[in-house]
Amino acid sequence: MDIQQETISSILVRSTNWIGDAVMTTPALRAIRESFPNARVAVLANPLVAPLFTVHGAVDEVIIYDRKGVHAGLRGKLRLARELRARRFDLAILLQNAVDAALIAWLARIPRRMGYRTDGRGPLLTHGVAVDGATRLLHHVEYYLAMLARFGVTTSDRHLELATTADEDAAMAELLAGHGIGTRDALLGINPGATYGAAKRWYPERFAAVADELASRWSARVVVTGGPGEAAIAADIAAAMTTPCVVMAGKTSVRELMALIKRCEFFITNDSGPMHIAAAFGVPLVAVFGSTDHSTTSPWSERAVIVRRDTDCAPCLLRECPTDHRCMTAVTTAEVVEAADRLRAGRQALSSQGVS
Fold first, then answer.
1. Pick from 274, 282, 197, 194: which is nearest to 23 by CA?
2. What are the residue ranges of helices labelled H in 25-87?
3. pTM over 0.85
4. Do 337 and 345 form a contact (C-beta atoms < 8 A)?
5. What residues does 11 pair with on adjacent strands?
6. Hey, which CATH number is domain 166-353, 3.40.50.2000, 3.20.20.220, 3.30.70.260, 3.20.20.60?
7. CATH topology of domain 5-150
8. What whole-number distance in Å separates Cα of residue 333 and Cα of residue 313?
9. What is d(CA 268, CA 281) in angstroms, rounded to the nearest whole number?
10. What integer pLDDT is reported at residue 315 of this predicted model?
11. Buried/exposed 281-315: b ≥16 CB within 10 Å, e otherwise
12. Residue 78, number of CB atoms within 10 A of its CB
């Protein structure tokens, strides 16, 4: 059952709650924009994810859903529903799977509510899609697009998309210049964190060894990225390195982190939100995977290499490893360095042939 374009003038898109997942919804946002070119598209997102979309070609407005502040508890949900009801949205597209997303759209009296029938929320949807075994195996990018396609909302352009402003890029260049990194310097990003849990994290001393080796081979400067909770890991990496590096973990906003990753020539990372940001900006990257499922959350990019080892217990999707963390201990620094060298050489060869 397709939705007629002419009946839709305003759309509310409920975003997912994690940065990486939200980045992987950007092809779905493009499909919405292309299918409803004259509609106003607003994204409802939590304070962590919202900055991703404050500058985005498919989004006209970002509405903050602050579950820990003004929208906390039942009273907060009702307040948000009243705010949304006053906006008279014609269609709610729920990219988040939780019942909370459907309940708020229903309370806001949005007449058309589209999403997967997950978390027992099917009765709250007017345009629901069942999730079968095959759907659960889709890469997250394809998962969101598949739901929309059931209602004729499609796009032929499936690449990720994020954007920074010229002022943001200039501010980051100025910040890096303060650390002695010029615009012509090759910049290697090291991203050792992963917010879901320690099971996803490769080891600081191995990140340090990779950074030292690649900085030497490529004559590159090194910057260590991450959120506030990853500052200690970043400090451990800096202490273990023989090459000077700049630690930016815990010192950037989401928008600044985007500009910093965009500036990198190469990125070494765990499976994480910054990994997906790098993929969206086309930054070549090597990602170390262990406990998580690379088939559904791998970087959506042709400029990415995954380094992982098959083990009998991975992917387990656990926050903490209950045994010996063999999925990560098996990944060596030499493997990551070799993967980075191969990818960088391949990208340079493509660039020399005029392919970007």
1. 274
2. 26-35, 73-85
3. yes
4. no
5. 41, 91
6. 3.40.50.2000
7. Rossmann fold (3.40.50)
8. 22
9. 14
10. 62
11. bbbbbbbbbbbbbbebbbbbbebbbebbbebeebb
12. 13
Q: Which amino acid is at 11?
A: I
| Order of strands, sheet of 246-247, starting from the edge strand that comes earlier in the sequence | 246-247, 221-224, 187-191, 266-270, 285-288, 304-307
CA angle 66, 128, 135 (to 5 degrees): 95
Q: Estimate the crossing angle of helix 254-263 against helix 166-177, to 10 degrees.
A: 70
Burial class of residue 345 (count of CB atoms within 10 Å of its CB; 0-12, 13-18, 19+): exposed
Do 5-150 and 166-353 come out as alike in CATH topology?
yes
- Closest C-alpha among 315, 295, 299, 317 to residue 137: 295
Asked whether the beta carbons of 241 and 268 are under 8 A apart, the reply is: no
List C-alpha distances in Å: 142 to 134, 164, 297: 11, 25, 11
Residue among 220, 160, 232 nearest 192 (CA) = 232
Residue written as token pair 């009946």? 7
Residue appearing with tokens 């990018």: 141
pLDDT number for residue 199: 56
Query: Mean pLDDT in runs of 10 for the chain (356 residues)?
Result: 79 97 98 96 97 97 95 94 97 97 97 96 97 94 97 96 98 97 97 65 88 97 92 91 95 97 96 94 91 78 86 56 58 92 73 33
Give the domain ranges of the chain.
5-150, 166-353
Cα-atom radius of gyration of the chain, to the nearest Å? 21
